[in-house]
Amino acid sequence: MSGGVVVVLAGCPDRFAVPRDHEAVPVDSHPEWLTIPPDGKNMYVGCAGTDTTDVIDLKTMEVVAKIPVGAVPKRNTSGLIQTN
């Protein structure tokens, strides 16, 4: 099974502009959904072809973990819960 690629775009002030800087990060097969939590350290990519969520470190632009999550991960989301 071949893998997928996530392209991370940087420096795009206008949502319709073509960004100049980007990096392609290889991930598992069939990436569909992604989320970046409020701390901005990692990006989580749901990979439907392998039933995993790949974790990308946004500083190193490398996959640092693969989390088995079950059939066809979709609709990833993140949030912040205030505890005090």
Description:
The structure is a single chain. The strands form two sheets. A four-stranded antiparallel beta sheet has the order 3-4-5-6, with no helix packed on it. The protein has a two-stranded antiparallel sheet with strand order 1-2. It has 84 residues and is mostly beta strands. The chain has one domain. A hairpin with a 4-residue loop joins strand 5 and strand 6.
Per DSSP, the total helix count is 0
- Subunit organisation of the chains: single chain
Report how far apart the termini are.
46 Å
Structural class: mainly beta
**Structural domain count:** 1
Residue-averaged pLDDT, rounded? Answer: 77
Globally, the shape reads globular
Beta-strand proportion = over 45%
Query: What would you report as the Rg, rounded to the nearest angstrom?
Result: 14 Å
Sequence of strands across the biggest β-sheet: 3-4-5-6
Key descriptive features of the protein:
6 strands, 84 residues, 45% strand, globular, mainly beta
Quick synopsis:
This protein is mostly beta strands and 84 residues long. It contains no helices and six strands. Mean pLDDT is 77; it is low at 10-19.
Write the layout of secondary structure elements.
Layout: E1 4-10, E2 21-27, E3 31-35, E4 42-47, E5 52-57, E6 62-68
